[in-house]
Fold this sequence. Notes:
Helix 2 (28-37) runs parallel beside helix 3 (56-63). The protein is globular. It has an eight-stranded mixed β-sheet, sandwiched between helices. By secondary structure, it is an alpha/beta fold. It starts with a helix and ends with a helix. The protein contains 14 helices and 21 strands. The protein folds into two domains: 2-187, Flavin prenyltransferase-like (Rossmann fold); 198-405, CoaB-like (Rossmann fold), CATH 3.40.50.10300. Cytidine-5'-monophosphate is lined by residues 202, 262, 281-283, 285, 287, 312, 314-316, 330-332, 345.
Amino acid sequence: xxxxxxxxxxxxxxxxxxxxxxxxxxxxxxxxxxxxxxxxxxxxxxxxxxxxxxxxxxxxxxxxxxxxxxxxxxxxxxxxxxxxxxxxxxxxxxxxxxxxxxxxxxxxxxxxxxxxxxxxxxxxxxxxxxxxxxxxxxxxxxxxxxxxxxxxxxxxxxxxxxxxxxxxxxxxxxxxxxxxxxxxxxxxxxxxxxxxxxxxxxxxxxxxxxxxxxxxxxxxxxxxxxxxxxxxxxxxxxxxxxxxxxxxxxxxxxxxxxxxxxxxxxxxxxxxxxxxxxxxxxxxxxxxxxxxxxxxxxxxxxxxxxxxxxxxxxxxxxxxxxxxxxxxxxxxxxxxxxxxxxxxxxxxxxxxxxxxxxxxxxxxxxxxxxxxxxxxxxxxxxxxxxxxxxxxxxxxxxxxxxxxxx
Length: 406
Ligand code: C5P
């Protein structure tokens, strides 16, 4: 890649920037500027309400194009064709995207130019949600985001922090530079090397209920598995993501099946694996579950109490036993004798390769955004440096591509 291209990664790209009525609209000016600096040709479309938050003059000046708000100009009747705009754009970026606009997009409502253009857009669509924490957490909003993600809309996750309401929580629009990085990555063409392949990915933590209130679980955030699912989808695979509890949005183009317990995950993964070309077993599955689940909340009493546990299905091992020539990738999170334990699992569970995380390595494993892993197959070890989980996912998916090339 030459330095000019690296500095202007959106050179020649057409970005339609949609702005909706959120206080975060003030950041759209910086966003527009960054898109221009990255080389993009930007046209800005605003909902009528968003003009209360930022002036069309500011955005017209920064984008060097007139702003689009209405279907036609009332002065001269000039028509803004939503179809032509959707065709012009390489990416339709809606930032900030309010709960209201997301809901209408998910439902297919088209009562302004911005929404009508969404319905006719053939290009990649990205939204950067911005709203109050309760609106973001509301199941209606979460369902709408899920539906949009499954339709292939890219979602730039909002951040935790101080909100305009004075409350603190998740809902702040991602920073403009993060949104531009998301768009750049999305438009960086990946070859659809996995087109026609169907892969299942298990991710996140399972929850084993003790009573209606308490459960046994673990610290898995699901980030590694979600990053792998996203990367597989980017390369054209059909992806079924069987997900335990996480707080993550569904990656674009991925079918997600939510489960809670190890038993539910086993059933969902085994059913999806029937028709699949392979699987990536990334979930942190409980090895034990309570023999009995109390239907009522257990009362405390003096002295000790015992919960008897029984083994769960080892999903990876069971899929490994029936995989045949299909692909199976496993994970191992070890605290001691890391390589030996991982190698034993590679063989016992019939993995094609296993990704070893060591809890000894700072920056590796649960929760964080980085991971330090070693990829182990029957031929040897490849130790990777500390990387962010998205880059680790790229390396894992490159190995998966090589498996299917054979
Ligand atoms: O044996 P261990 O739990 O360390 O193996 C880890 C690997 O097995 C991971 O790929 C994990 O997703 C998978 N696994 C599973 N079902 C279980 C336990 C682990 O799929 N019950």
